[in-house]
Amino acid sequence: MRVAFCMLRSEIGRRDGGAESIRNLIDGLRSRPGIEISLVTAFGSYPCHVSYAPYPWSDSKAIPLIRYFYRTVKKVSLEHDITVLVLPNAAFGYLADIIKLQVKKPIVVNYESQCHLLKNYRLAGDNLSWRNIGRLSAFNGIIARLSQKLCDKYIVSTHFQKNKLIELGHDSVRIDAIPNCTNLSTYSFQVGEKPWNRRRRSVMYLGHFNHSKGVDVLVDAMPSVLKEFPNAKLSLVWSGSGGEYPRVMRLISKRGLIDATEMATGIVNVPEYLSHAEVLVLPYRSLSMTRIIPSLLLEAFSIGVPLVVCDCDPIGEIVDDHQTGIVTQVNDANDLARGIIEFLENRDLRELVVQSQREVAKQQFSHTVVAERYDRIFTEMLNG
Q1: 265 and 249 Cβ atoms separated by less than 8 Å
Q2: Is 61 helix (H, G, I), strand (E, B) or coil?
Q3: Whose CA is closest to 208, among 91, 325, 291, 121?
Q4: pLDDT of 140 above 80
Q5: Is the pLDDT score of 357 beyond 80?
């Protein structure tokens, strides 16, 4: 069985949620007998049976990129039994339709995220830049409805996404919800008490600084945390992406948190940083502009980190409250502070959550488990 993965957006060599999940999935599939994996991607290559020459990705050249992608995938598909198109969201369904009409072989579409929604934008800050307005106009549900849904199978990460596709007119029989995956063998799981400095208890956020990530909500929550635990510190690890860095820094100063905050910028050794967090906080307002199951969440499960998240869709499918994390209300600094404080004061709860995370990661998100599910779908398509 020869399978080609063709990634429109994700740069396989970068620290990117979509790229990391695909890398893990390819690792899992390469270990299964009878499957040869090829990869078409922007920028860089990754070990597989065949890696085609990468093409340059640039938002400013979206139309030429799509044309190049189409021509490349059309050629590659003729040489393979099954083609998997890894596309940003259902608004790219028309591109999948065109490829299916030309190739006339089994085509699987993997949608990384959901369509852009107006409710996730606001009237100030980084969420109303000209680029985001363009994305909202091009990648919304109205555009997604225009596609003919011709491909053989559509795969998404969560049942939340599956239901959204059904609302857009997809046949539920041709949709499978298979989660993103993590390679547990690449992480050192934290067992028992961590070797952190007890004088400063680290409350960590790691990622982009933009409105959808809710970093400002975490900053607003910290004064309440410090009242209960004066030795807590806010550890912010900024990816370098996102337009709200100045706003976050002003808010830290306004809340009197300068002395209680440490900042790291740029690409860091994520597993090492996470292993020193007493609590990891992901105060997301929305997952509409990211891969639906964030890679950072799966890394937290793989390492074993007490996790506080906000209840934006579809977090409830991934994190069980007080089992694999603490789930708080979206955009509610007081509730977020409550969740952080509960972890800081309850060692037994921290250890229970950490152990549960590892079991869930093994059973649901392991790259070997997810690869087996893909293998089963590929085999059924070829035999059926």
Answers
A1: no
A2: helix
A3: 291
A4: no
A5: yes
Q: Give the integer Cα–Cα distance in Å for 340 and 342.
A: 5
Phi-psi region of 350 (alpha: psi -120 to 50; beta: other; left: phi over 0): alpha
Beta bridge partner(s), residue 238: 207, 265
* 3-class secondary-structure state, position 34: coil
* Contact indicator for 51, 18 with CB cutoff of 8 Å: no
- The dihedral through the CA atoms of 204, 209, 213, 216 has a sign that is positive
176: Cβ–Cβ under 8 A, 6 or more apart, which residues? Answer: 153, 154, 155, 156, 162, 373, 377
Domains of the chain, start order: 2-181+366-383 (3.40.50.2000), 185-363 (3.40.50.2000)
> Cα separation of 191 and 22, whole Å?
28
Q: How much is the CA Rg of the chain, to the nearest whole Å? A: 21
Backbone angles phi, psi at 331, to 5 degrees: 60, 30
User: What average pLDDT does this structure show over 210-224?
Assistant: 93
For 14, residues 6+ apart whose C-beta sits below 8 A from its C-beta are 43, 44
Give Cα 284 to chain centroid, integer Å: 12
What is the per-residue pLDDT for 42? Answer: 75
Give CA–CA dist 159/165, Å, rounded: 10
pTM over 0.90: no
